[in-house]
């Protein structure tokens, strides 16, 4: 007998009919002889509806009260799902995060799980019940309600799987699994049978929205096998697992893209030691996360420093860059929101040379200009024109022959 | 400095604008130098909307899961109200029932408060904050979420006032206070400055919907002064307090009516000792609450037994009466849903004779037939035709000259 944790997001529980579908999936897993814990998010647009109410009431809502408000969404879903299972003659019991002892730190709206008390869940699983737990929420040691931030229900599911030593954590979504590229762009994109935690982390940070990176980190740290699979079709999905030797033969697992970044350039900065540290120290203090950085040393002893930030942060970053430019005696500041990033990801890169060159060749063949380059141990990313994204993803997918093999 | 508990029902917090109004009322009380605890219900039709979802999912929902679901409504309101007070530069903090240690018994959907831990509330009040508490909910000793049933938020408010030894519990409603009669029927009805707990209990059980009887009982047991007042007009309302000597001079405080009952009659029951005990023993076992009972002994040694029940219970009561009639060898069963009850209430009746006679005279003058009569120490009730209610209430109000003087 295995212990399976299942997680269903907001669109999978958006109405009564879909909640009944989730009840069927949980009971089917139980009928296969497994113990089942289900983690759910708030129904459909519940969270958006609550935040719209907040907008009517407060321009700067207190994070503690936001958590008090938003945590009600998941609590509604767990109760309705328990009723749906009862109604289908199954056994189930619902628990809020605080009730199953999901203890977090005090960071409202982005709390981190500190510990989980599994006693209550184990007792109910042994009584043959489907244990339903509200995702996204926890409680501090001082009985304050917290939420885990974006992708919080994924994190709850993987953390519960780790704490309960579950055999698998199934993340149900509206796609069948993780693909070699976005199937909306590359029609011959192939679903991966498996992918490593590290590759999944790169994909998550690259803007692929299948799994939130915090949940993948949790899975990696506690070695929880995660399956990304469809809520609507009963077929195996993609397993996210730790690296195995045979995986190293696969040089590139997939091609990702991200349209969510913008570029800021500070032009004509006098060339002195410590300039970069000064610039990015101030950007970091302003809580603006920088992705890629390029510094060109010009012939006249002046530098151009360019960096990319989330489009959401562009306005703040620009205002700050203007101040920094003035302080440093730089010539001017430019910004560009029409960029995008394409990336190839694969653990095999660690032992295979020439991946970057293959990628650059694919882009060159298609007359796509590369504006910035960044690499990690298992990733190569290029900033290009946003209008070139679809062609670039297709070209790279073709060049690495991703439609075949595995 | 006084400590005031304020309670606002669902219609007083139905949207963002009304929540802002509640924030103003709480802050105004604080500006008068008082400590303020606010108890709120779920916004407007939230509870109905959640129950409609339940209907889609389950025909026989588990009470525990209903409590899990419904308790979210109040939790949403407390968070939004705290934000509204913050937004108006006030200090406030919200708490769920479980968070402020409202411990109840295990009776889901109709739990009774067992104890309240005031420590957290006192600490926040001392810090100058408006303490906002979710009404209607509590937690068992085993961390199970419970709700208190109909009128639960009133009960929470009065119970908190008792536990905190508050100087007053203000129940804000959509009426200005308690009247000598329904102002929609008697246009010269007068708002009472004060009324006793016992009178209020009689009015609550007579169908007046201003305060739920459980909260009045709580107020009486712990001697909490309760004020019924308007959410929309800043004027003093009606104080519900314990009896004082001068109140005994007031023979009748008000006239109430209830259209919610129906009459069942078992005709021609053989006259034997123990018949009534038998009939009402069986009715009680079926969980049907009986209000008035009349037994006429006929000339032929047969009795007619009539009793009134809530219209909601009429069908069940009729079916049971048919069985009882058969078992006892009675002749037939009749029912009548076109009845209503009019009552006069007043603690002064205890020391004044002739109240019943005055009431009967008022009805007789207006050709209104009395079908059943019931009296308590501080109440006289008559069952009449439902179509006569408005004329009866007006006639009794006139006869007792309630429009004048306190």
Question: How does this model look, in words?
Answer:
The structure is a homodimer of 406-residue chains. By secondary structure, chain A is of the alpha/beta class. Chain A has a domain at 3-173: Acetylglutamate kinase-like (Carbamate kinase, 3-Layer(aba) Sandwich), CATH 3.40.1160. Chain A has eleven helices and 20 strands. Chain A has helices at residues 16-31, 46-57, 63-87, 119-126, 152-163, 197-205, 213-222, 275-285, 314-328, 355-365, 389-399; strands at 3-8, 35-40, 92-95, 102-104, 113-116, 130-134, 137-139, 145-147, 168-173, 194-196, 226-230, 238-241, 254-258, 261-270, 290-297, 302-310, 332-336, 339-345, 372-376, 379-385. An eight-stranded mixed sheet of chain A has the order 3-6-2-1-9-11-12-10, with helices on both faces. A four-stranded antiparallel sheet of chain A has the order 13-18-20-19, sandwiched between helices. In chain A, a hairpin with a 7-residue loop joins strand 11 and strand 12. The two termini of chain A are 30 Å apart. The relative contact order of chain A is 0.10. The mean pLDDT of chain A is 92. Chains A and B meet through helix 1, helix 2 and helix 3 of A and helix 1, helix 2 and helix 3 of B.
What's the Cα radius of gyration of chain A?
Answer: 23 Å
Structural class of chain A: alpha/beta
Number of strands of chain A: 20
Greatest chain-chain contact: A-B, 37 and 37 residues
Strand content of chain A: 25-35%
**Assigned CATH superfamily of the domain at 3-173 in chain A:** Acetylglutamate kinase-like
